[in-house]
Amino acid sequence: MRSLLCLFALAVSFSGVSRAAEPVLKKGDRLAIIGDSITEQKLYSKYIETYLQVCYPELEIQCFQFGWGGERAPGFASRMENDLVPWKPDVVTTCYGMNDGSYRAYDEQIGKAYENGMRQIVDRMKKAGATVVVGSPGVVDSFTWRRNEPDFDQVYNDNLRKLGQIAKSLAEENDFPHADVFGDMEKAMISAKAALGEGYPVAGGDGVHPGANGHLLMAGAFLKALGLDGNVGAITVDVASGKADASDGHNVLSSKGGTVEIESTRYPFCFSGNDKDPNGTRSILPHSPFNQDLNRLTLTVKNLSTAHADVTFGTATKTFSKEQLSDGINLAAEFFDNPFVAPFNRVLNEVAQKQSAETSMIKGFITNFRQIQGSLAEDAEVKAALATIRRKMTEANDTAHAKAKASVEPVRYTLVINPKS
User: Fold this and answer.
1) Contact 233, 249 (CB under 8 A)
2) What is each CA distance from 123 to 102, 118, 347, in whole angstroms?
3) Among 89, 217, 335, 377, fewest CB within 10 Å belongs to which?
4) Confidence of residue 17 (pLDDT cuts 50, 70, 90)
């Protein structure tokens, strides 16, 4: 078992709220999520799309994931003209490097091949007028990856770190955002394994493909790079006057004493699993700034006459101090079981079905258009037939997007603030 003592010394505190990057997404933008088999797992991509649907519905972002197992950056560069460009993305996220590192120690040839492939992607998307969020690769797990080769995780993570630095340099060179997927995963892995044991996987059971916990970290890295401020909503209750108000996306229907009925069209992000399950998203939260940076539904209570008060949110009740409530508590972080969970999961499932069809659309049909060569490629009837197929499949995807968007329905719930003497 590999010691974490040296790593634990590097662990960082996740308290406070990090400054968001400059906003990247504009209303109505089309966001393409590209990458290798980790992207094709359709977890971090699902979290990104669901987050945008429920936390920022007013942006009306349409997403499409282009993940392909085993792919390297040069591989996507060779198919992007056919597979991606016709979709006309406004913003593109990239997550390559895991395969580009060739699963051995870093050398100059590895770096050059990765940089050349990534540069082709960045240059072509820039020419198309798209913004590229240049992501680094993730990590391999310090315990589950190649357990019969002690310390090789450190060798390969050093390789992935160097590829991440190349990605960052490309982003800076083009004045594009960089998503530090590697850095966020490495910090969380150090912290989580120190708390839950080395056997707790952050990069999955095979050490490469994360479970839900690692994919939440990846989604967080990209969402931060997209410049989202994380203010999902704010609710203020004055227990002395009995009045309450809320920010856009949240409407106070009634308020009497400390009981407030609210209807919300914006949801906080909701989590799955328990505090030790790597196949859920909840277990990684103490080791990630996700809630602080990206998921703040804040309740502020004014003029509380007692030192403490019980807050009931849905069916759950917790006690907070007057100072905590005056400063504001994050309902999304304090109440995992809340009125938004079931509606959130309905949206998540719609997004999952949509993205599953996208994989079939690209890998089963669209990418194969490239195989038509020679005289047939210039035949007018063939061109028209392919254009019709592409249009019909795009229309089906648009319908799936509209269905996922429509599944974000208003949620009514009650907040109760009960002063405790």
Assistant:
1) yes
2) 24, 8, 34
3) 377
4) very low
User: How far are the Cα atoms of 209, 251, 262, 413 from residue 254, in angstroms, in the given order?
Assistant: 47, 9, 7, 11
How many Cα atoms are found within 13 Å in the side-chain-facing hemisphere of 420? 14
The residue among 238, 259, 261 whose CA lies nearest residue 251 is 261
- Chain segment 205-217, per-residue pLDDT in tens: 999 999 999 999 9
Instruction: Report the relative pairing of strands 316-321 and 308-313 from DSSP bridges.
Output: antiparallel
pLDDT at position 21? 67
Q: In what order do the strands lie in the sheet with 250-256?
A: 250-256, 259-264, 411-420, 308-313, 316-321
Q: What are the structure tokens assigned to 268, written together? A: 């906080």
Find where tokens 């795009």 sit: 394
With tokens 């019980």, the residue in question is 310
Residue among 101, 82, 94, 83 at smallest CA distance from 121: 94
The pTM score is 0.94
Sheet containing strand 178-179, strands side by side:
62-65, 30-35, 91-95, 131-135, 178-179
22-26, 72-76, 160-164, 273-277, range with the lowest pLDDT: 22-26
The C-alpha atoms of residue 402 and residue 407 are separated, in whole angstroms, by: 9
The tokens describing 229, both together, are 């401020």
